[in-house]
Amino acid sequence: MNNQDMNIERTASLSRKLWQIYLPVGFVGLLVVVTLWYAMSTGSRVAKQYYPLADAAMEIKLEVTTAHLWFEEIVGGDQHEDISVVWHHIDQAEWYAQAMLEGGQNDKGTYIPLDDPILQQKIQKVLEKIKVFRAIAQERIVDSGKSYIGSDIDQHFDAIFRDFLKQVDAVEAALQQVMRRDIERFRFVQSALLVLCLIITGIVGAVLFRFERRQSSNLAMLRASNQQLVANEQQLKAANQQLRAGDQQLKATNQQLMAGEQQLKAANQQLRAGDQQLKATNQQLMAGEQQLKAANQQLRAGDQQLKATNQQLRASEQQLKAANKQLRQSQQKLSLHVQQTPLGVIQWDLDFKVTEWNSAAENIFGFTSEEAIGQHAAGLIVPPSAKEAVDQVWRDLLTQRGGTRSTNENVTKRNGTILCEWYNTPLIDENGEVIGVASLVLDITERKRVDEALRKSKETAENYLNICSEIIVTLDAEGTITMLNESGHSIFEYDKGDLIGSNWFSTCMPKRMQDEVRTVFEKLMRGEVEAVKTYENPIVTKNGSEKIILWHNTLLRDESGNICGSLSSGEDITEIKRLQTLESRAERLETAGTIAGQVAHDFNNLLAPLIAYPDFIRDELPKSHPTLQYLDQIEKAAQEIADINQDLLTMGRRGHYNQVVLNLNTVIQHAYSELEPLPKTLVCELDLSENLMDILGGGAQLHRMVSNMLHNAKDAMQDIGQIIVRTENYYVDDVSIVYGRVPKGEYVKLTISDTGCGIPDDIVQKIFDPFFTTKATDKKRGSGLGMSVVDAVVKDHNGFIDLSTKVGKGTSFYIYFPITREAMDSQDLDETCGGSEMVLVVDDDITQCEVSSQLLKKQGYKVHFVESGEKAIEYLRENRRDLVLLDMVMPGGIDGTETYRRILEISPHQKAIILSGFSESDRVLEAQKLGAGAFVRKPVSMKVIACTVRAELDRRRDHPST
Fold it and tell me: Which of 455, 618, 700, 755 has the largest count of CB atoms under 10 Å?
């Protein structure tokens, strides 16, 4: 074996060793990937299993709460709502409870059945409470005389409802406990898998290190082999040069052989030329034979054509005989028809004299055929008043040689006057000459009288229909519009008469309903179903908008009693429906807001340590400590939760904030500056009025509103198009808008327009509903709150919102804020500093007490806390405090306002700050009227609480008037 073969063999051996090490390394890598995948999927499973269950528990509470509210409205005397709404919400609550036990699916997701026995028992109790709730409600409806508000059964009903809420709260608490248990298990499994991955990675690293050392040794051996191969290649080059010299000698010999081959080819070409001449002579002989055959075929074809012509002549003779026979029969039939037809048949010669007069003409005019034949028309049946017109018809017949139709008066034998309709045509011979005139005449005197009566009756009926404010429409059996009054044309926005003759379903019905309604109408026309006397449905106007019409219907029948169409009167109830929708929407928002406020209050207390404690931990750790990056992530996540929670508070209109004088342009410019960089294909333009009036409002809330609307516009554009933000001073003179009316007055008008996809008609009324969204659920946490927050902020500022949109063209929102002429306050509260004063913290949540205490102690204050207003009063009887931090809402006891009122009885000059996640505005203002200072929203940060406490302690307190 030479050196080159040995080198190849070594390389192959090394490659096999590489594959032997790559296979276990690949298997280990695959094992690590599978391990990490299992860890991630386990966390995903926990989230997928329990988040829908938590959602179902909240839906149960919401549905029964809504049913309770509707039921109280109906029992209280609201006759505008149906009790079926209550049963519907109770059915929904039962469905969600059953879905938690057995599994289920609706438009909000899949509900995985519970596998925890304790949770199953609790949710079974919830089901029983719902059934008891339904039974008591049905008992109250049946015995309405004893179920008035405040009665024993009413109190029992409320007690059942409160017991139900406690049971649902118990389910939610148990569900959270199970979630925490599974999450702790998941974290343990995740940690174990990570440790296993680290061990496997170390083993793989050691194996690779050993393999690398072996590979280095093998590479050194390969380099030595390559040097030997270079020497061998030089020897091979010398041998190749000798071989090339021998090749040149062989080429010279080959050239001599090729010259002899060319001489042989020339001789072969001469032989082939002789063969071609012989072939051409044979082809000419064959062409002559073919021409002779073609001539014989033409002779035979001529004989066949002659025979066919003779057969056609014989067939034509037979057809002519049959035609003569049919002509005679036709003449006989014509003569019979002339005598038996109800039309008068008269023929005239060129002198306008009668040449033929049938029996019908005798009946019409009273002259017999013997009396009429030979008489001139003017002396027979044409009165002097009609002579000129008749003569003109006669001249037209003779000159234009075309048929005419005319109506004129005629006289009878008894000098009576009748009205006749004439159908005239000239008689022309075979030479094309006029030889006379044939006329058909019909007495239409009675028909004209009836038509005139009908015309007057129809005119009267049309007048009645046109002065009617409702739609009056008739359809034939195919759904074609045969009559529509002026009000109908006006409501459909068509010119008078434009809809007559068009199909009702394809012209006036929305496309989504055309097939369904047409099928019902066809069954109606066949008598398979009875007519619905009252019915409401949408119709489409000429410009494409929809209106809702309430119809009153009846069937039309012919003389035989068969259904031949329908007659309907319709009332436009679009505005009534719109107002009902707005009222229903307002009630839904109020209910959702109440629940959102309750949930947000609990979130605020839980968020307090997440927002406050990271600052404490940073102060205890060195700046280079690796844990600090986790603190940043915790703080960022907590702030995002606080932002979503703030949306819930704003949506429920439960958040209280001080309204100050501000300029909307400043808010817009700030929100625009925070907008993430836009692509070159998307442009956002600001058109802000230079002399814009001020408004009263909360800067943070208005900033959130503008940011939400800018992000919504950006999402609708899909990074292509234009956004325009415009402000202006605007005077309104009682304008009607989509969502109500804007009262007369001065406003600052904000317009935000985009050229995006627009909003379809079927969802435009839902955009302000909580949790309604058309975006992907994973696009942003908190999806579905954006526009409901906008609506809540506008209402909190006594403003109004309107919009205009068209699918594919874009959307414009118009917001009106009342102006103010108060002056702006330029006070700066950014400075933060501590102190040594004594502070009392009053809060029903122990976690919030600890957080507030830690924040104040960090600033140097001496802090004591209590868990209720009653304990605060008892404490202050024995102890003096420079400042009291009061929680506004403390369930189970007196609230912050009442606590402060009683504290003032003990210490009239006591300073206080209100601290709460939400509060009713009137209670906050009442506490501030008593002398309380600023309002601080939970969750609090160190900077905010330090600034507010220092400012209140330094503030000179005026004695409130009594």
Answer: 755
